[in-house]
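Q: Start with the shorter request: fold the first protein.
A: Done. Sequence, then structure:
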Amino acid sequence: MEKTKTQDLESIRKAPLIAILITGAFAAILNQTLLATAIPHIMDDLAITANTAQWLTTVFMLVNGVMIPITAFLIEKFTTRGLFLTAMGLFGIGTIICAIAPTFSILILGRVVQASGAGIMMPLMQTVFFVIFPLEKRGQAMGLFGMVIAFAPAIGPTLSGWLVENYPWRSLFYVIIPIAVIDFILAYFLLKNVTKRSFPKVDVLSIILSTFGFGGILFGFSSAGDAGWGSWHVMLSIIVGIVSLILFITRQFRLERPILEFKVFRYGIFTLSTIMGVIVFISMIGGATILPIYMQNMHDFTALESGLMLLPGAILMGIMNPINGWIFDKVGAKWLAITGLSIVTIATILFTDLSGTTSFTYLVVVNACRMLGISMVMMPVTTAGLNQLPGRLIPHGTAMSNTMRQVSGSIGTALLVTIMTSSALDTKEYGIEGEIHGVNVAFIVASVLSGIGVVLAFFLKKTSPEKEKTD
């Protein structure tokens, strides 16, 4: 076996490898959540409108969503070390561009470069974990991965709020630069090649179709909350996305070496785990979107208070992820998922009776319970699905699960926000309680989704890698 292909896994020191990958993923996710509270400051400094400023978050999500589906191809094409250094290098360069950007267009360019690197990191990190850890320890490894996903968004808004109150908005990027530079240097000296290369050919048409497919759907659903479903650019974007995605999927089945292998859905537990992952991610992202709107627009809480309300739940999720990973390695995902989704469903039902007098403490405790339940489901279920895949398909499985997470987050947020606004009652007749009625209806839909997840969880079973299924 070539030295550049793979190292002897037994001789590889896992601790530095894990630390480098987790630091990179942490920086990427932290960066994604930092800008939320800084948008007004950037608008004032660069003299731009709110609609224009929103592109700073939209373009990052779009490029991220476009990069993730092609990471399976990149992982098979390039070495672990080379791909991570490229991803972290792009992310670091993009961060520097953002920090010194004299105009909005340069700032947008920086966000695009950042996202092109960040989109590679998450699937690469998951794939490496599945290569270096044996089956019986993958739960703990994915628990660490889940801890990063939880802690970075927990810290982001609070850190961002403090920085923009005390320093210029550019400080948000200057905080990230040292992390990216140090991680790049450590990766250069310590990172080893562990993924196998199969040197697939570049299929340019597939990449174009993937870009328009996933990008169109993400943009369309993300814009629907603000522009409305009747907006021509929302409908056009979704239609172009769906048509491109159908053509992309059809082409992948015809190619000998597809860019993204949809045959992963031939594995029952992987398919089931992906559906459950979508359900629980919609529940998580929907709650994180709707609760701050309710608190700030309908209940007179400040932006800081709405951020602090979400903080205990995110911290609890971060703490519990490694613990749930350890439990998964002992007993599997089934009863973790059943228990977790039951908790999510009950806690979501408790959010269906909100009012203008609901206390801050109630919101904190119920949200923390929801996040506890989500932590019992998300990583264990993802790991159970990926465990069923043969080694060659793991990069495709990680790319697919991350892509579904991006798409479901976008669609779920748009769906729940639309339900919230369309279900609101006339404020002239019902006052603020009329608006809150829409929030309650959105949570009723979310609780029904979670309930479906509970039923699906009973069909989960412990998995191990299967032989690749052929036509």
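Q: Next, the second protein, separately.
A: Sequence, then structure:
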Amino acid sequence: MTAICFAAMPTIDAEHLWSGGRDAYDRLPETIISDGPGHPCRHCLENIDEGEELLVFAYRPFPELQPYAETGPIFLHKRPCKRYAAEEILPPVLTTSPDFILRGYNEDNRIVYGTGAVTVIDEIAAYGQKLLARPDVAYFHVRSARNNCFQCRIDNIEAPALAEIGALT
């Protein structure tokens, strides 16, 4: 059985934005106030509480531009937060919806066709293990089933994870 780990947005990307850096579209992030659940921080993988300031910006969780490098809006606490560390445990943000899209990518960061599936929370780990057992799947993304927003990346625990390799810098 393949062991999986949940990888949050790299700290280098979060620090880039916290220090006034630009997003994947070369724009400054927008600051908004959270009105409660529904604003998951992609760095700590927790929901941003009502009344807290957050950044909303375009994020591309891929190392370079290419046709499969999806870019979309995500949220980040405006004040620095600690990166999600319990890599083998389902992160808190993945308990806020009944299901998510899981999609596999190969070593060249291209979608592996046939791997995308709307997956209920209780089956995320099992489907992830199934995907990562395939030789053509290097990692996969967990995305919102309703809006397709990037939530986190899942890697084989034995393989090098997204770790601190940034996408924005």
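Q: Describe the second briefly.
A: The first strand starts at residue 4 and ends at 7. The chain has two domains: 4-8+86-156, 11-77.
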